[in-house]
Write a structure and sequence with these properties.
Blueprint: E1 8-12, H1 16-22, H2 27-47, E2 52-59, H3 67-90, E3 93-98, H4 106-119, E4 125-133, H5 135-149, H6 168-173, E5 186-189, E6 208-211, H7 221-233
Parallel strand pairs: 1-2, 1-5, 2-4, 3-4, 5-6
Helix pairs in contact: 1-2, 2-3, 3-4
The protein binds farnesyl diphosphate.
Farnesyl diphosphate (FPP) binds next to helix 1, helix 2, strand 2 and helix 3.
Amino acid sequence: MPLNLPTHIAIIMDGNGRWAKAQGLPRHEGHARGVEAAEEIITAVREWKIPYLTLYAFSDENWRRPRPEIEALMSLLKAYLLSKQQKMLKNGIRFETIGDIAKLPQDIRDTIAETKEITKGGKAMTLVLALSYGARDEIVRAVRKMMDQGPLRQAQGAAGTRDQGPTAEEEFKKYLDTAEFPDPDLLIRTGGEFRLSNYLLWQAAYAELYFTPVMWPEFTPDELEKALEEFSRRERRFGKTSEQL
Ligand code: FPP
């Protein structure tokens, strides 16, 4: 039973395609099984009373996939949201997104907006889907927003002292898509790759990274527990020495 639980878990759900291929199934079946795995993990995270979960559901690079695969992912997303809105409401799950959702088809945007509205009072957990998301794109959009509004010059310099007003870093954070959420303290990637793939590059600065060869459709709540146990064993020093902690 892990002792120190994270506040925010971010997951790169990789391996749906390879899992499907290994079973002799089409890729979209891998994604369909991936949605079921995501649902089980969302429930488990809520039961662990971990307040934030961010899932990388569609990256801005995923727009380069074949049209039928993009359409399959979009229709899975829409069906998922429509079928789970009431369950999220009942379980106190607040639904949010990060990413450039303006690029998504209008019907999906409408479903996203409706789901956010229905679940906005959820207090048990915040579920964030990264959709049409890329961290560099997010940072560039944040810089643009900030230049339009211009308050950074009033903040302290990049190395500004923390006891005199906001630092430039704290000011900048407010323009990221994740402004309202704490930084992830545990980042999990399934599917055996050791990369961040443009996911939460700013926010994951101090996250513990957990990589597993398990393909996403097979990432069960037991696998999540292994990641939580590993997190619990690690000592987070934030640049300090062990003795200073
Ligand atoms: C990576 O597998 C996964 C994706 C690109 C999409 C993940 C999306 C889901 C699991 C469904 C969305 C979730 C919800 C909750 C609606 P891959 O296709 O890159 O796998 P591969 O590396 O084996 O090809």
